[in-house]
Amino acid sequence: MMDDLAQRQLAAIAEFSAAARELNRSLWLRGGWAVDFILGRISRSHRDVDWFAESKDADALVDLLRQLGWTEVARAPREQQRDLVKGDLDFGIALIRLKDGQPFVGGGPYGGENWPATMISESRRCQLHGAEADVIGIEAQIEIKKMTPTWVPHLCRRQKDLTDIMLLKSALSG
């Protein structure tokens, strides 16, 4: 059974994904919700919804969300991530740049650093409870979850990330 927050997050994911596609803007789900879309089931509750988008599309996507009732909040350098809220819903849009299909961190202190090469090239469109979203590649998702505490030392390894890695590995082998 889905709780109320999960239902509203899922509806917001569906709405934002569909609207971005209508505008021909690239947008990829990442993090815990990406795991759930890959699995085809909700594995746990989620505090927020994490995305990747191309830096060149950031302003258009933020404007789109504003039209849908979202408010931008400043949490990270704007060239690195855009964060928006709507009541208790929270979207974090990490910005990337693509060069010859290779994704790079869009800006901020890690600007220009590589993201996993398969992040976008192996992305896929997935469905969950009638919602549809493009999701980053499974192997890239695993690498990001494994490496985040190394790349960003103040972010500790969390049990939910270890569980997500196990679930993603089983999805790869299944």
From TrEMBL:
A GO molecular function held by the record: nucleotidyltransferase activity
InterPro entries: Aminoglyc_AdlTrfase (IPR019646)
Protein name in the entry: Aminoglycoside adenylyltransferase
Gene3D superfamilies: 3.30.460.40
The entry's keywords: Nucleotidyltransferase, Transferase
Domain of life: Bacteria
Keyword Transferase in record: yes
Entries under Pfam families matching the protein: Aminoglyc_resit (PF10706)
